[in-house]
Give the backbone structure.
Amino acid sequence: MPKGTTSRRPRTRAALLRAALATFAEHGFGAATIEQVCARAGYTRGAFYSNFSSKEELFLALFDEHSERTVRRIGERIAAVAAEADLTVDALVDALVEIDPAERDWYLVTTEFTLHAIRDPQAAWVLARHDARLRTELARGLTAHLARAGRTLTADPDEVARLLVAIREGGLAQSYVEPDLLPPGHLERRFLAPLLTALTAPAAPTAAPGDAGAVPRDPEVTDQ
């Protein structure tokens, strides 16, 4: 493969992903065509098929990209807060419920693909694998961030991650239908802190550095 082709491939892929998100949001995943994605990106069908085997694979690449970006943004936001002050559950919730204005397009696209997957067992199986990877990252990050806030989960982290996703997606559905009455993130901002508090307990205190290897004194033993 010529060197120039290799160096252009990431740019081509990125352009196709951007075009796919806009095209799927405008026309719907089912109605959108590969030709429309290529035209918006300014590439040929050949360029598309050198990066993706199907429209479904294109969506899953978008899904993974969005998941990675979301997890990274939450982590960066929490790290910034923790650098200024002690992390609290309220501050953690603020990072979790931050909604980018562009999220509406992604919500339209992922909701329609989810409906497609519910009708198609093979698509459902594949989507579930990608969902599971996202939940693993969310559960790992949530456990670590709660520990920094002095809390530990008392429920299964994967199930808590499922609950958080359900709350976010359900809240956004209502917000996008009634944006003036229910701004995006409003329900999560109001109820996630008490929910996380109910699903956690104070973390066990850590031993002081000098006490890490200490052995409890036997009350029956007296000094000689």
